[in-house]
């Protein structure tokens, strides 16, 4: 089994949309325009391929984005710097193989050299104890709760401190920038990608 975690490409978007909207009630459905917004603005948008097949994806955004999610807005009003995991979806055929943990390791590696906090939420209605336990064992703590809209589900707002960030900030970010290494590079957005 060959696994690759890589930045999303435009030709992946139809498959990502189908995967998102087949995920069930634990993931909010989106349309093509919303997915395009993520493609153009998300700081972290990576997919997992297993033997060439799309197996999952994770989308995350830093503070300061023009994003209307009530959960993202909650973190924006409470924390000056963070990376917010908007959604993670794993295809049914690839669940229970540790792909969620692989994604969380990757997004943590991305975040800890940029921000002091990794944030997300989990639905409490319906409550999924596997998801709650996963986040708890990965170091997330509940920092709040809210209802999504007037009649939406109750969510638990979770955050994880990234202690490595202090060292990176003091050693690199306050004196310039991160080293020019491929694994530290920012995602190329469509507006910054070189033209063929």
From TrEMBL:
<dbReference type="InterPro" id="IPR000182">
    <property type="entry name" value="GNAT_dom"/>
</dbReference>
<dbReference type="InterPro" id="IPR016181">
    <property type="entry name" value="Acyl_CoA_acyltransferase"/>
</dbReference>
<feature type="domain" description="N-acetyltransferase">
    <location>
        <begin position="3"/>
        <end position="163"/>
    </location>
</feature>
<protein>
    <submittedName>
        <fullName>GNAT family N-acetyltransferase</fullName>
    </submittedName>
</protein>
<dbReference type="InterPro" id="IPR016890">
    <property type="entry name" value="UCP028520"/>
</dbReference>
<dbReference type="Pfam" id="PF00583">
    <property type="entry name" value="Acetyltransf_1"/>
</dbReference>
């Amino acid at each position: 089994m060959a696994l690759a975690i890589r930045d999303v490409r435009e030709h992946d978007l139809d498959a990502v949309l189908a995967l998102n909207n087949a995920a069930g009630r634990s993931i909010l459905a989106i349309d093509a325009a919303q997915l395009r917004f993520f493609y153009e603005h998300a700081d972290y948008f990576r997919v997992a391929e297993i033997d060439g097949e799309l197996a999952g994806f994770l989308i995350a955004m830093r503070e300061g984005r023009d994003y209307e999610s009530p959960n993202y807005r909650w973190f924006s009003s409470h924390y000056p710097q963070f990376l917010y995991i908007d959604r993670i979806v794993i295809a049914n055929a690839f669940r229970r193989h540790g792909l969620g943990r692989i994604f969380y390791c990757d997004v943590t590696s991305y975040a800890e050299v940029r921000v002091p906090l990794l944030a997300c939420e989990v639905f409490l209605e319906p409550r999924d104890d596997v998801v709650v336990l996963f986040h708890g064992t990965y170091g997330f703590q509940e920092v709040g709760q809210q209802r999504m809209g007037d009649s939406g589900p109750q969510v638990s707002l979770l955050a994880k401190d990234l202690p490595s960030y202090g060292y990176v900030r003091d050693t690199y970010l306050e004196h310039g920038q991160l080293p020019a290494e491929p694994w530290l590079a920012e995602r190329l957005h469509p507006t910054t990608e070189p033209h063929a």
